Amino acid sequence: xxxxxxxxxxxxxxxxxxxxxxxxxxxxxxxxxxxxxxxxxxxxxxxxxxxxxxxxxxxxxxxxxxxxxxxxxxxxxxxxxxxxxxxxxxxxxxxxxxxxxxxxxxxxxxxxxxxxxxxxxxxxxxxxxxxxxxxxxxxxxxxxxxxxxxxxxxxxxxxxxxxxxxxxxxxxxxxxxxxxxxxxxxxxxxxxxxxxxxxxxxxxxxxxxxxxxxxxxxxxxxxxxxxxxxxxxxxxxxxxxxxxxxxxxxxxxxxxxxxxxxxxxxxxxxxxxxxxxxxxxxxxxxxxxxxx
Length: 292
Ligand SMILES: NC(=O)c1ccc[n+]([C@@H]2O[C@H](COP(=O)([O-])OP(=O)(O)OC[C@H]3O[C@@H](n4cnc5c(N)ncnc54)[C@H](OP(=O)(O)O)[C@@H]3O)[C@@H](O)[C@H]2O)c1
What we know:
The protein has about 290 residues and is α/β, with parallel strands linked by helices.
């Protein structure tokens, strides 16, 4: 039986997420070199066994695999530009947030410099890094991903390659992430209303969680309607949501909660009804959104 020593890795950027990534590599026994613009942030990692590089160039030179988790691609390029010759031939994995366009641009920048590049996204909080169920998805060359997947899986057991196009991780992150703010604002508006009745936000949580589970279960049905562009068999019609719009506004007024966030959503439902989708499934909003 062959025994593989854990591969050496470098982590650039030791903010909340970068520090969590470095900690996970250390916990899995990977020789880990770290670098951060503000060097003090490396101290707890050094105490946990990391080697601190004095410069970004030294950090890159230390490992064949470099994981960067700075704020954005521009910051990463600013740090790596001057050391691009050292980076050439090594694998760079970026785990920052950003737009698909910025990811494409960064991939071109890396390609032009002979850097083997994967882009990824951590779909959880720093505390979840290193757990078996934590999701990270990646975009880039399948052979390169296969080469490093055992090491990358240390960051989260649910480690997936979405495909070869270099912007796919950022595309999925943006497309899936579109639910986050509207969902949270809905919860916060409900919590503000509950407060006016002396009901704690915590009392809403079990029911909100059930509600979100129901939404999760219904998404495949909506997705099938959207993909077939056939909204005729929907159980929840646009008109049904239109009728509910007035009650939403009345409830907000009664509870003295700002209803401004609801108005654009109601306008969208009205626009769909106006476009002849009244009897169609609420998933027909996709058509309205797709034709601004
Ligand atoms: N935290 C989360 O929950 C979470 C979850 C998923 C994804 N992410 C993404 O992960 C990335 C990092 O997030 P974070 O929470 O770790 O952020 P953070 O705590 O604010 O850390 C930002 C890191 O980037 C470095 N940095 C920023 N601009 C730089 C520059 N121009 N030159 C050199 N270093 C620079 C900072 O260095 P200094 O220490 O010197 O300032 C620091 O190491 C972001 O894209 C974020 O969206 C975060």
